[in-house]
Design goal:
By secondary structure, the protein is α/β, with parallel strands linked by helices. The protein has three domains: 1-231, Up-down Bundle (Growth Hormone, Chain: A); 270-515, Vaccinia Virus protein VP39 (Rossmann fold); 533-755. It has 28 helices and eleven strands. The protein has helices spanning 3-33, 37-58, 68-91, 93-97, 107-133, 140-172, 175-194, 200-231, 272-285, 298-307, 321-330, 334-337, 349-355, 373-376, 381-390, 410-424, 453-462, 475-478, 481-492, 505-515, 520-530, 534-551, 558-586, 593-617, 622-646, 652-685, 691-721, 723-754; strands at 236-243, 246-253, 256-261, 264-269, 291-295, 313-317, 342-345, 360-365, 391-402, 429-433, 437-443. The chain has a seven-stranded mixed β-sheet with strand order 7-6-5-8-9-11-10, with helices on both faces. Strands 1-2-3-4 form a four-stranded antiparallel β-sheet, with helices on both faces. Helix 5 (107-133) runs antiparallel to helix 27 (691-721) and helix 27 packs antiparallel against helix 28. It starts with a helix and ends with a helix.
């Protein structure tokens, strides 16, 4: 087997390792940063930035290295050790910053931790791409094909890694066990590449492989336990495990156990006050509730509180079955969970509400604030309409959001106003009960709800409901006229935008509210962006077009590299849009992430394979790159049309069609990107650059563009502009690339005619 055939195994392993490491480290960092989209955007941006720098900077030196295969073997050995060490480093990050469990994490620790932790593995992966493109000496034509082949095989490895992680690894293994498997694969590749060579690396690789496998077998469980204790230092850790939806941890303090998901407290047991607050107000507002739908939090005391009202049926929807399983194992709630009146349903709450044919007297949403785009789906106009559809006449809908007892500032007021305005667009009547948590209650009937505490106290007595906190001495204080009027006045001070599926503005106001805990600079930036609309950003696109057109003749490679950068940015933004769109329309995205990601990588591979073959047979130039860029520009508009069509699909058969069509949409996005990369590399090679430098430059620019897209997509563009306007903006910036390529192609044609 020749050298080129052997290293193809390394190309696949490179993509596999990069994808699995990215998912694992993002999940680990989410536990520290609580997994909102700002943290995900920062983590992904730092990943892409460091990988791009590794390719862009170190790729310049690849062509001057003589023993490239030996260096490749050494890189895989180092790569095998990095992931487990970085996982342990992430778990100790909280101690470094002095952040306690449950404390809100600021932007600086979030950025700095991910920036430092991700640097070693990302720089190495970026360098490996450029190194593999220059592993052997090649002619110009062979070099073009080589860059395309490495891109293809890396994409195949990434698709395998993403799919294998989602459907196999995370179901049965913890993160350190997954890291041990990945490390074993990398060491196996290093050993395979060194076979047949008279080098000391072969023996080092063999010894390291045996030692790595033996130590993983003997110590991985111990390392998992000790590193988890490091992450939860200061708490008695009862249990920690990975599920498909994130990390679940259970801690104990005296007689109370607390459940955390991705580092965020979801409930404590016993916590009678929180359970009574979530349930009792809603049920007391209904004259005679009999059927209840509870979305989230039922494994705490909430179910017990609901059943006190003589309820005939409770449907309890909890997405992650591991939470209920651990509750049965660790909490004295088995009798409630086994009550014949209670049916536990493991699915996404939004999806259940969309699909159920049952009707309820009361729907209680017991989920956190719209702190993420995922949670925001439960506070939109469309979801409120879906809830209204499943309520019986005179039915009641209730949820809680965080507030303040005595003072409501501008940021909190805008957030509460957007939620209140959205709720009022759907329901006939609504009340808001003030407190540290504001309780929103709405109904589809008039003159049903009350803010009179005496009425609620009377219903408590009539139903013979015993409560510890929500009773005659507390209700008059909580529902005092002064507090109610103050809250109403602060909500009405701002007329904010309606929160919708395709324009999640309440989520953005929640981010702005989060920023008030930290630097005023971050708050000012977020507040400034809330004032921006599409026309301002379109003017920025016009300014960029003027600048790039003025520079095109001075920098010959500018059209190619600019197109690669805008496409990289467009692809990452459109991938986020597809994920959020699927989440909005189908109801959940967790179990389909692997399919959607794999479809994108398969499209990337298919497009690259086709372009590499075309480059062997035909002479393709800047005009063909322009045609590809037109497809990139049209894709966001295709998504807008698709979303508008899919949003009208209400039947189960149509929803099934959506589930099939979404992977096809991401396949097409990957296919266009796959077509562009080999052609762009070929055009850049024609400027006289060396192979390694070209591979590093083009790959780095692609990742830098993706980095910019990752920063702005979920954190600013989609919440502020909405999904549709974000798509229009992406199309506008790629239109700049089309204009730049078109003008440069015209200049080339005129130059050819004159010569």
């Amino acid at each position: 087997m020749n050298r080129l055939s052997k290293v193809k195994v390394g190309w696949i392993a490179m993509g596999f390792t990069s994808m699995v490491a990215q998912i694992v480290l993002m999940r680990e960092l989410m536990v520290v940063f609580y997994g909102n989209e700002i943290s995900l955007g920062v983590i992904l941006a730092n990943w892409l930035l460091w990988t791009g720098l590794g390719s862009f900077v170190l790729g310049r030196f690849v062509d001057r290295i003589r023993s490239r295969l030996s260096l490749l073997v050494l890189c895989f050995m180092v790569l095998s050790l990095l992931l487990p060490l970085l996982i342990i480093g992430v778990r100790g990050a909280r101690l470094f910053w002095g952040i306690s469990i449950g404390e809100i994490v600021g932007f600086a620790p979030m950025f700095c931790t991910s920036f430092v932790i991700l640097a070693p593995i990302c720089v190495l992966c970026g360098f490996l791409f450029a190194l593999n493109c220059r592993i052997v000496d090649l002619t110009f034509k062979e070099a073009v094909s080589q860059i395309g082949r490495v891109y293809i095989f890396e994409a195949i490895g990434s698709a395998i890694g993403g799919t294998f992680f989602s459907y196999v690894l995370i179901r049965y293994l913890n993160h350190l066990e997954i890291a041990a498997i990945v490390g074993t694969i990398d060491l196996g590749v290093a050993l395979f590449l060194s076979l047949g060579r008279k080098t000391v690396l072969k023996w080092i690789g063999a010894i390291l492989f045996v030692s790595y496998v033996a130590s993983s077998w003997l110590y991985v469980d111990w390392a998992e336990q000790e590193s988890n204790r490091l992450r939860w230092r200061g708490f008695e850790l009862v249990h920690s495990q990975e599920s498909r939806y994130g990390n679940i941890a259970v801690t104990s303090l005296l007689d109370q156990k607390s459940f955390y998901e991705n580092g965020l407290l979801i409930f404590s047991f016993p916590d009678v006050f929180s359970a009574e607050e979530a349930v009792q107000f809603a049920l007391l507002e209904h004259p005679a509730p009999r059927t209840v739908l509870l979305i989230g939090g039922g494994a705490s005391d909430c179910l017990s509180e609901i059943l006190k009202h003589g309820i005939s049926r409770v449907d309890y929807v909890e997405l992650d079955p591991q939470i209920v399983r651990l509750s049965r194992k660790l909490l004295p709630v088995t009798s409630v969970l086994e009550d014949p009146r209670v049916e536990i349903i493991h699915t996404d709450g939004r999806f259940f509400v969309k699909m159920t044919k049952d009707r309820y007297d009361c729907v209680i949403l017991n989920l956190p604030d719209p702190f993420t785009a995922q949670l925001n789906r439960f506070y939109t106009l469309q979801f409120f309409r879906e809830v209204n559809r499943i309520l019986n006449p005179g039915g009641v809908f209730s949820f809680r959001v965080s507030s303040a007892e005595n003072y409501i500032g501008k940021e909190l007021g805008r957030f509460l106003s957007s939620v209140h305005l959205t709720l009022g667009k759907v329901f006939e009547e609504g009340v808001v009960i003030p407190g540290e948590n504001n309780i929103f209650i709405a109904t589809n009937a008039r003159n049903l709800l009350t803010l009179d505490p005496e009425t609620l106290v009377r219903r408590l007595k009539e139903r013979d409901v015993t409560t510890r906190y929500i009773r005659e001495y507390y209700l008059p204080y909580r529902m005092s006229l002064e507090r109610v009027e103050y809250l109403a006045s602060r909500i009405e001070d701002w007329t904010e935008r309606v929160n919708t599926d395709f324009h999640p503005i309440s989520y953005y106001y929640s981010i702005v509210l989060w920023s008030t805990h930290f630097q005023t600079f971050v708050r000012k930036v977020l507040t400034f962006f809330s004032l921006i609309d599409l026309k301002h950003l379109l003017l920025a696109a016009v300014g960029l077009a003027i600048l790039t057109l003025a520079l095109r003749r001075r920098y010959r490679s500018l059209p190619v590299l600019f197109a690669v950068g805008t496409t990289g940015s467009a692809e990452i933004i459109m991938e986020v849009v597809c994920m959020l769109g699927f989440q909005v329309l189908y109801g959940f995205v967790y179990s389909r992430v692997g399919v959607i990601t794999a479809a994108f990588m398969i499209g990337l591979t298919s497009g690259s394979v086709l372009m590499v073959r075309l480059l062997r047979r035909r002479l393709l130039g800047l005009g063909h790159l322009g045609l590809i860029q037109i497809a990139v520009c049209m894709y966001p508009l295709l998504l807008v049309a698709s979303f508008q069509l899919f949003s009208r699909a209400l039947s189960p058969s149509m929803l099934l069609s959506i589930e099939i069509l979404f992977p096809l949409l991401t396949f097409f996005a990957g296919f266009v990107g796959g077509l562009q990369f080999p052609l762009a590399s070929k055009l850049y090679l024609e400027t006289g650059r060396e192979v390694g430098r070209v591979a590093g430059m083009v790959y780095g620019i692609d990742l830098f563009g993706a980095c910019i897209g990752a920063v702005f997509a979920s954190t600013l563009l989609i919440p502020v502009l909405g999904i549709f306007q974000t798509c229009y903006l992406v199309a506008a910036f790629n239109l700049v690339s089309i204009l730049l390529i078109g003008m440069s192609w015209r200049d080339q044609s005129r130059l050819g005619e004159s010569s």
